[in-house]
Structure formats: structure tokens, C-alpha cells
Specification:
There is one protein chain. By secondary structure, the chain is α/β, with parallel strands linked by helices. The N terminus is likely disordered. Helices cover 42% and strands 11% of the residues. The N and C termini lie far apart (162 Å).
């Protein structure tokens, strides 16, 4: 008589053994979520960097453009100022070349006041000196040779004109001033071989004459002394 095989009993309440499958699927989901969040963050960072780079590039371009504009404007202003400074001064007369010998006798000059020619070995001090008496032509012409501007005035000049011109001369080395009763105009500005006659010290050409001709291109002996002395 055969014996019966023992029956294995299945645990109640389930269809099979419970393993680690459930926890594994949860971990995979979490890893996928984390990866997605990281990818999203990286995309955001890339966009942010791109925006920053774009903004920096735009700022640099704007700064460069502004710098170029400022430089061009400054260059234009300098060119305009130079053109204005180089423009002819209306009314200025030039007289060509003159001899420059040192003499101790009076000289007959063709211009009044004289603008150049032979002259005395001693020059009139012209470092902003203002004289209240007429000067010897021969000494004043020597100062013109050194690049000074000589301001003269007749009895037609007003006290205000004389004061304005005196202040300007005193503030300007290589200039000097004196009365000149015989001059035909009211106020005369003289440099070597160059002259301008004006009616008023406020004439804007006065400043332009000083700017151009005090130690200007007409100077025969650039850098020569204008203090007291003789050659």
C-alpha cells in the first residue's frame, strides 16, 4: 500500500512569496525624478549664462560704441577749434620781410607804429610790461623780433579800453603796451611784420591776435629774452 505524499501548505492570504520588487521600482522612480530635476536645473543655468553673456556682450558693444562716439566728437571739436584758430583774422595786415640790423641811430619806419626793420641793440622789456609814456620805436621793434605783441593806443581810446588792455598785457608774458599819440587808429596790435587796428578793447579779434602772435610763427628769434637786457 503506497504511502501518500505529504502536502505542502501555501501560506494563507497571498498567492506567492513577497520579494524586494516593490522597493526597487520606487528607487528607480526617485532616481528618474532627480535626474529630471537636475536636467531642468542645468537647462535653467545654461539659459541664465546665455542671458548674462548676451547682456555683457551688449554692454561691451554699447561701451565701445559710446567710446568711439566720444572720441569722434572730441576729435571733431579739436578739428573745429584748430580750424577756428587757423582761420584768418579779419583786418590783419602783413608786410613781408624786413632787415634786422642793429643800429644806434634813429630809423625811419614806413608803418606807424613800426612793424619791423633795423633796430636798437637794446630791446624794450616785454614780459607783460605796461608803460604810461611813448617808447622809442627802435627799442620796441627789437622786442617784436623776440616774438612780443606791442599794444599801442591813441587819445581816442577810452579809459575803460586802456584798463582792459593793461590787465590783459600784465597777464601775458611776451607782450607790452604804451601810448602812441601819432597812430592813426584807436588801438593797434603789432607783431613782427603783422598789424591789426581796432576801435575797442572788447573787439574779439584782440584775443585772437594775442593767441596767434604772442611767440607766434612770425617770431624771428624764438625763445629770446623779453626781460631787461641788450644784445
Amino acid at each position: 500500500m503506497a504511502s501518500a505524499s505529504p502536502k505542502s501548505e501555501r501560506p494563507k492570504g497571498g498567492s506567492g512569496p513577497v520579494g524586494p520588487t516593490g522597493s526597487a521600482s520606487g528607487s528607480a522612480a526617485r532616481r528618474a525624478r532627480i535626474a529630471e530635476l537636475r536636467a531642468r536645473e542645468q537647462r535653467h543655468e545654461r539659459r541664465s549664462r546665455a542671458l548674462v553673456v548676451t547682456a555683457v556682450v551688449a554692454l561691451v558693444v554699447a561701451l565701445v560704441a559710446t567710446g568711439v562716439f566720444v572720441v569722434l566728437r572730441a576729435s571733431d571739436r579739436q578739428a573745429s577749434a584748430k580750424a577756428a584758430a587757423d582761420a584768418p583774422i579779419p583786418g590783419v595786415k602783413t608786410f613781408g620781410t624786413f632787415t634786422r640790423n642793429h643800429v644806434t641811430t634813429p630809423v625811419q619806419y614806413p608803418q606807424t607804429p613800426p612793424v619791423g626793420g633795423d633796430h636798437n641793440p637794446t630791446w624794450t622789456p616785454c614780459m607783460g610790461d605796461v608803460y604810461d609814456q611813448p617808447l622809442h620805436n627802435e627799442n620796441a621793434v627789437h622786442s617784436l623780433e623776440h616774438g612780443a605783441v606791442w599794444v599801442t593806443y591813441s587819445g581816442k581810446a577810452s579809459p575803460a579800453d586802456i584798463k582792459t588792455l593793461s590787465d590783459k598785457v600784465r597777464a601775458t608774458p611776451y607782450s607790452f603796451m604804451s601810448p602812441y599819440p601819432d597812430e592813426p587808429g584807436t588801438i593797434t596790435l603789432t607783431a613782427w611784420s603783422t598789424q591789426l587796428v581796432v576801435d575797442s578793447a572788447t573787439d574779439p579779434r584782440v584775443d585772437r591776435f594775442f593767441t596767434r602772435y604772442v611767440q607766434g610763427p612770425q617770431t624771428q628769434e624764438p625763445g629770446a629774452s623779453c626781460s631787461a637786457g641788450s644784445m
